[in-house]
Amino acid sequence: MQTFRSIDWNSAWNSDRVKRSEGRNREYWNRRAPSFAQHIKEGDRDEYVDPFVEIVDPQPEWSVLDVGCGPGTLSCPLAKVVRHVTAIDFSPVMIEILKARSEREGISNIVSQVASWEDDWHALGIMRHDVAIASRSLDAEDPQAFLSKLMSFATQRVYISFAVGSGPFDHRILEAVGRETQANPDYIYIYNLLYQMGIAANISLIEKSPNTFSGEEEAVDSFRWMIDNMTSAEEEALRRFLSRHLIQDGARWKLDYHRAVFWAVIWWKIRKGS
User: Fold this and answer.
1) How far is the C-alpha of 271 from the C-alpha of 128, rounded, in Å?
2) Which of 20, 47, 82, 141 has the largest count of CB atoms under 10 Å?
3) Is beta strand 110-114 parallel, antiparallel or unpaired with respect to 84-89?
């Protein structure tokens, strides 16, 4: 009989992981980058960014490596507190948006670079940092290898985050347009894998409230990411679903059912000699 201790959590992650379609490659993220960045508005309180930064509790003397930095979601707010941030992402468009935001906000202590998880970071001149973070960016066939790689570039702490359950994927919407509703393995696989690697990690949960919309068009646009290469028939099905489930909430609109999204922030200290 298989027990918790006998499960190979690295293999389990890979077996249960839904393979991404070609639409989730670098070109997909290059196309999505502008709309993705719109969610990160200067000066606004963010239900994900602010709690994440609070969990990290950044120190002025730290250097931070942000892997899968996107448009600067965490790099920019962290750079306003810490000594230095190195931000890497495999999407050149994400990096360009981060650079533009840094210039706009007067941030001069971020070094950004186009790089993927698979690249040789040493060859790219990336050094060890006090802290390494990977926020919602580890989607790999061999998570143990990438976790080990992340730890090898941190001297003090590592912070990573993953969805709890299905995360932002709304199965009602996927079913409404006729898509499969398979969910990727969530944070518990990674937590158990870390445990098998000899790491007793900490966990904090971040809850995001349901989105609200100015109207149907904004709602449709906000769910496009969930449906790769959405066809016209699928868009019609999505619009029919939204026409049945969007209700007014003051000056905004929301879905008529509550669906909170949770993210798990997993972090641990690097043991001396690691």
Assistant:
1) 14
2) 82
3) parallel
Report the DSSP pairing between strands 246-249 and 110-114. unpaired
Run means of pLDDT, 10 residues per run, the chain, 274 residues: 81 76 55 57 67 97 97 95 97 93 96 95 97 92 94 98 91 93 84 95 93 90 84 96 94 90 96 71
Quote the DSSP letter at residue 213: B
- CA 10, distance to chain mean position in Å, is 19
Question: Residue 135 in contact with residue 66, Cβ under 8 Å?
Answer: yes
Q: Which two tokens stand for residue 182?
A: 């398979």
Contact between 63 and 84 (Cβ < 8 Å): yes
Beta carbons within 8 Å of 24's beta carbon, 6+ residues apart:
228
For 189, the token pair is 């696989």
The reported pTM is 0.88
Q: Which two tokens stand for residue 52?
A: 């994440």
- Rounded Cα distance, 130 and 209, in Å: 32
Q: Which CATH number fits domain 4-166+182-209+260-269: 3.40.50.720, 3.40.50.150, 3.30.70.270, 3.40.50.1100?
A: 3.40.50.150
Tell me how many helices (H) and strands (E) the chain has: 10, 9
